[in-house]
Structures are given as C-alpha cells and as structure tokens.
Design a protein that fits this description.
By secondary structure, the chain is an alpha/beta fold. The chain is built from 4 helices and 5 strands; from the N terminus they run αββαβαβαβ. The protein has helices at residues 2-20, 48-53, 64-70, 86-98; strands at 27-28, 40-44, 59-61, 78-83, 102-108. It has a 5-stranded parallel sheet, with helices on one face.
Length: 110
C-alpha cells in the first residue's frame, strides 16, 4: 500500500515539476530590439489558430504537440521560444532541450 502511494505521489510531483518549475538558464527576451550579431531562430509554439492571427516574421510555427515529431525541421542554432504562457514555455523548452536543441530565451505572447 505504501509503495503504491509513493509511486502516485512521485508521479504527481514529476507532473508538477515538468509543467510549473521554470527551466534553468532561459531568460525572457523582447523580440523587437534583437541584435543580428547572434544567429537565432524563433520557434512559435502557440496553437495554429492563435499564431495565424498574430504572426511573427521569420518564425517557425511548430505547436507543442508537433515538437516530438518535427524537431528535426528546426535548424541547429540558438532558439527563441514564443509561447502563450509559462506552462507552454516550460513544456516546449524541456522537450527541445531533451532533443538536443540550444534555447537562449523565450517571449510570452497572448
């Protein structure tokens, strides 16, 4: 009985960690005054319906459910994540870091 309780509690803690604990080393970036000295790619992880209404120039639109399958479409350079909230930012940055991508920052856009 205690083993089952420990397993359930640890799964719950893992779920909370993955979604709500911020990813270390990723800073908030404003998209407008970005310098061209560093090569980067903007990855828009918002849903297609949201990102099509509020487009970002030169951004790769790749929603979170598609990241596992299509992360190879992203170039191997620095990435900036555009997300709608902190939960989406945490999930997408953890997925992309697990796949070996280098994320330098994020931008939240509703």
């Amino acid at each position: 009985m205690y083993v089952a309780l420990i397993i359930i509690v640890s799964l719950f803690i893992f779920f909370l960690y993955r979604r709500y604990i911020p990813v270390f080393g990723i800073q908030k970036i404003n998209l407008h005054p970005l310098s061209n000295s560093v090569s980067y790619t903007i990855v828009d992880t918002r849903d297609y319906q949201i990102s099509s209404q509020d487009k970002i120039d030169d951004a790769c639109c790749l929603p979170i459910p598609y990241l596992h399958r299509h992360y190879n479409d992203l170039p191997n350079c620095n990435l900036i994540i555009v997300a709608k909230d902190h939960v989406d930012k945490n999930l997408s940055s953890r997925i992309l870091r697990k796949k070996g991508k280098h994320i330098i920052g994020y931008h939240l856009k509703k």
